[in-house]
Design goal:
One of its GO terms (biological process) is metal ion transport. The protein is 66% helix and 1% strand.
Length: 413
């Protein structure tokens, strides 16, 4: 399946008469034969899959595809380290890049970068869940690992393959609608397709060095904001809203409401600081910039229209703290996930009440659901490990001579 990612760039090399067609052609042939051989050799096997196998397979998918994806970058002139960095950044939808001068690159390699993010966005693990049963391997553990949120123990459909297909339909549908709206808003056909791939993937790759700011269009920014928010929402909620015929599910979902509340709070604080510091010539510019960059950074998408690190006061750090929380569970966004933060906030509030009322019998709830004590323990355990790794990497980055802001944003990405 991964070999198909080389086909659209290959077609563009002929369409725009660009060089590099051999790179994509040979890469397609090699990985198609390799993948086909593995499939043929294993399709008759029906092996049980335990949790440890699920972890290994999940990790190998990310590592192998990241290294495989680096090959075109290397043959286009990047060093080995830069090629691997670009591929890993794409597959993991991190959005960081070592490439300067995107506007002058061939369209084929630009589209390839966007496709890497699109594949990595939501599809990599769900694709594994869909493909594994075809290879005779169960995928329940993988499904549970990648969908850990409030719907994580509930299958969307009786069969995992049907769930994966339904999620892919939503993913492809969002991409198509996003591309169409980008095009109608003034983007070229190529830019609209390319940016829809990275927007829905929550990755932030662009075909221009100035990112979304290149277009200087409020309409395009609005479209981008809408789809960054949609991509940050749980795809299980999307499924219930679309296939379950319950469009109001978005408003009833506790996690999504909490996520939007955090986004709105950061927007409000940013706007107040901008107005008080006269950062912009007019209020409209302050509003549009506050909304766009808050949504972009908190959802971990990473699109920009300006250098937000130059914002006054504590605002750049506030955005990075928002990104630390990240998007909703079962979405393409990064971060700790909003549902974990919601559980920790709820648990902390309960402990405060216990201190004030020692004899009170209190239960932690999110909406109407009671939070099991074991779930809360796992969330706090995950948070502890997350913070430890974050601080370790932050110290390592600071040791290289980077500023605190640069190091924090690099680790947070």
């Amino acid at each position: 399946m991964f070999s198909l990612s080389f086909v659209p760039p290959l077609i563009l090399t002929f369409t725009y008469e660009e060089s590099g067609r051999e790179i994509f052609l040979y890469s397609f042939i090699f990985f198609f034969i390799l993948g086909g051989s593995i499939w043929a050799a294993t399709r008759q096997q029906n092996l049980p899959l335990n949790i440890s196998d699920g972890f290994i397979i999940t990790t190998l998918f990310w590592v192998v595809l990241a290294f495989a994806g680096s090959i075109p970058f290397y043959f286009f002139g990047l060093s080995v380290s830069d090629a691997i960095f670009e591929s890993v950044s794409g597959i993991t939808t991190t959005g960081a890049t070592t490439i300067v001068g995107l506007d002058s690159l061939p369209k084929s390699i630009l589209l390839y970068r966007q496709l890497l993010q699109w594949i990595g966005g939501m599809g990599l693990i769900v694709l594994a869940v869909a493909v594994m049963p075809a290879l005779g391997i169960g995928g329940g553990q993988l499904y549970k690992m990648e969908l850990p949120g409030s719907h994580g123990n509930q299958k969307l459909t009786p069969k995992i393959t049907d769930s994966a297909k339904a999620l892919w339909k939503i993913y492809v549908g969002l991409t198509f609608i996003c591309a169409m709206l980008y095009f109608l808003s003034g983007m070229t056909l190529f830019d609209s397709i390319a940016h829809s791939l990275s927007t829905v993937a929550g990755g932030g790759f662009s075909t221009h060095d100035e990112s979304i700011g290149f277009f200087n269009s409020a309409i395009i920014e609005t479209v981008c904001i809408i789809f960054m928010l949609l991509s940050a929402a749980s795809f299980a909620v999307h499924y219930v809203a679309i296939f379950g015929g319950k469009p109001l599910k978005y408003f009833y979902d506790s996690e999504f409401r909490f996520f939007l509340s955090v986004v709105l709070l950061i927007i409000l604080l940013s706007l107040i600081v901008h107005i008080l510091s006269n950062s912009y010539a007019d209020v409209f510019s302050a509003i549009s910039s506050s909304i766009f960059h808050t949504v972009s950074i908190v959802t971990t998408s990473g699109f920009t229209t300006e250098n937000f690190s130059l914002w006054p006061g504590f605002l750049p750090y506030l955005l990075l703290v928002g990104a630390f929380m990240g998007a909703c569970s079962q979405s393409v966004g990064g971060g700790i996930k909003a549902w974990r933060v919601l559980i920790m906030v709820n648990q902390a509030y309960k402990e405060i009440l216990k201190t004030i009322h020692p004899n009170a019998v209190l239960t932690s709830k999110i909406g109407t659901k009671v939070i099991d004590a074991k779930i809360a323990e796992k969330v706090w355990g995950f948070f502890s490990i997350y913070v430890f790794i974050f601080m370790f990497l932050l110290m390592a980055m600071l040791g290289t001579g980077l500023s605190f802001e640069t190091a924090f944003s690099a680790v947070g990405a």
